[in-house]
Design brief:
single chain, alpha/beta, Rossmann fold, 2 domains, 10 strands, 40% helix, elongated
Length: 293
């Protein structure tokens, strides 16, 4: 695959650059182009700072340093800068111009830290406009910290997860890693008001068994055999906790392509995973064929 890696000169893209470096080292099929976007037109103050050389040359030199900081220059076929109205427009333009297959970007908040805004503006907007796989990486994730375990695909057993399944299967094959599916089941919280204490565990086990059977059938219906994990608890945390326990190198999930109005009333699991997971998360749109209709 060919990837566009978004560069942020404030250091927020270091995790993304490290992840590209790791992918390059583990799969000969992966190719990368680093793109730094300057939003709007540089003003005279910026021009004055770099007097004696063109602003574009200065930016590209700064972008080279950002990649070199991670020791990742060999992973990138090219490094470029763009001046466009918005960062997401620049990255999507690069995706089109380079005929790339997907994007890799960093998020705003490091692992283990909480904040009101965890993803960052550009990542959130890219998720809303998702038409290609998007990998979002914590800014402080170094290549040597990436797990030596499987590619984990999170599934809700719906059509929106089919693209994630296909992508995860391809990545597992390219990386020589096991493919693992994780399906989260949650018991309605109000049940504990009606069930006797000795019945709760049996109901919980029954729900887990039903979830596992349904997930096995779903994977088989798409011609995939993979080890399955049933995770219990709040969905987002249960999914990435299971992936971390497996020492997963990548957690993959589908995109429901929620509208702005829908996002007001319901959350995007993909966005929440990317915002909170300590490992890289790939959000994959559903396929356009009849399988996801």
């Amino acid at each position: 695959m060919r990837w566009i890696v978004g560069l942020d000169l404030r250091g927020l893209s270091q995790g993304a650059v490290h992840f590209a470096k790791w992918l390059h080292e583990h799969s000969e099929a992966e190719r990368f182009v680093a793109v730094h976007v300057v939003e709007g037109r540089p003003d005279s103050r910026a021009q004055a700072v770099v007097a004696g050389e063109s602003f574009r040359d200065w930016l590209e030199a700064a972008a080279e340093k950002e990649v070199a900081k991670a020791g990742a220059r060999d992973a990138f076929g090219d490094i470029e800068s763009k001046s466009v109205p918005s960062a997401e427009e620049g990255l999507l333009l690069a995706l089109q111009e380079r005929q790339a297959d997907g994007l890799v970007v960093g998020r705003k908040t490091p692992r283990g830290k909480d904040a009101v805004v965890r993803l960052g503006r550009v990542a959130r907007r890219l998720i809303r406009r998702l038409e290609s796989p998007l990998i979002i990486v914590p800014p402080d994730l170094a290549s040597e910290e990436i797990g030596d375990g499987p590619v984990v695909v999170a599934t809700d057993l719906g059509a929106d997860a089919v693209g994630a399944l296909r992508f995860g299967q391809a990545q597992a094959k390219a990386l020589g890693r096991e493919l693992v599916l994780v399906h989260a089941v949650t018991l309605p919280s109000h049940l504990d008001q009606y069930l006797p204490a000795d019945a709760w565990s049996s109901v919980q086990a029954e729900v887990g068994t039903e979830g596992k059977d349904a997930a096995v059938a779903w994977a088989a219906s798409h011609g995939v055999e993979a080890r399955l994990i049933v995770a219990e608890g709040p969905v987002v945390r249960a999914l990435w906790t299971a992936a971390v326990a497996e020492r997963a190198c990548l957690l993959v999930c589908g995109s429901r392509r929620l509208s702005l109005l829908e996002r007001i009333f319901t959350s995007s699991v993909g966005a929440e995973l990317a915002a909170s997971s300590p490992i890289a998360v790939a959000i994959v749109p559903p396929p356009a064929d009849s399988e996801s209709a």
